[in-house]
């Protein structure tokens, strides 16, 4: 790791509201896997598509913030301190990580849900496990997900400094909820308190089959309260499948309103599109 500056990096925090959630849902681009992208091919510059999450991980490695040009595009100019090989090696470290551009200060997924292979879209390793659990009730490989989340929280910059873990609350009537299970198991292994039982989520209808615009309206009718002291704390918010991100951002808003200083999103997989039910 290169150590060049002593300035402490703090992820940007903005007030979460219905308007800001809408703004990020319609932002472009919404996500990127840096390793297999076009952003390291330039011989002179590293050109990330957005700042959120990517800069924080980059700074942890190189102690360097992104520069921004007159067109509001972010970049790093290679030098003897940070050369292209350094950056390619760094991207390889996060070869499966999906960096997400949303209202949270940091938001990532451990992998894509599916990836294109030729003319087909095939499940990734984690995507296949999530699909089996959610839609086939096959939990035989669930500990693989727990292991990967433990590894991420223990090693990802800023995530490892979190105080609490919290699952995105489930819809009513769920017999088994994957994020809740993961939060419980991971909490025991990383030594961070799981506050999921203290999130009082009222009646919430299943929102999977309604248009995204209607989903946002319904979400803001969802009565969610936080029944523990999280003032000035950092929370890792866990979900299984990140689609539009509307639900995760809404729960992050509720945690922020209850006093949380930072809420970092950690999803198991991210779908390729940025809308729900696809």
Name the average pLDDT.
91
Count of extended strands: 14
- CA(first)-CA(last) distance: 39 Å
Instruction: Classify the helix fraction into a percent range.
Output: 25-40%
> Unreliable segments (pLDDT under 50, ≥5 consecutive)?
1-6
Overall SS class: alpha/beta
Global shape: globular
Largest sheet: 7 strands, mixed
Q: How much is the radius of gyration in Å?
A: 19 Å
What is the string of helix and strand elements? HEEHEEHEEEEHHEHEEHEEHE
Order of neighbouring strands in the sheet with most strands: 1-5-6-14-13-9-10
Report strand %. Answer: 15-25%
Count helical runs.
Answer: 8
Explain what this protein looks like in three dimensions.
With about 280 residues, this protein is of the alpha/beta class. About 30% of the residues lie in helices and about 20% in strands. The protein has a seven-stranded mixed beta sheet with strand order 1-5-6-14-13-9-10. It is globular.
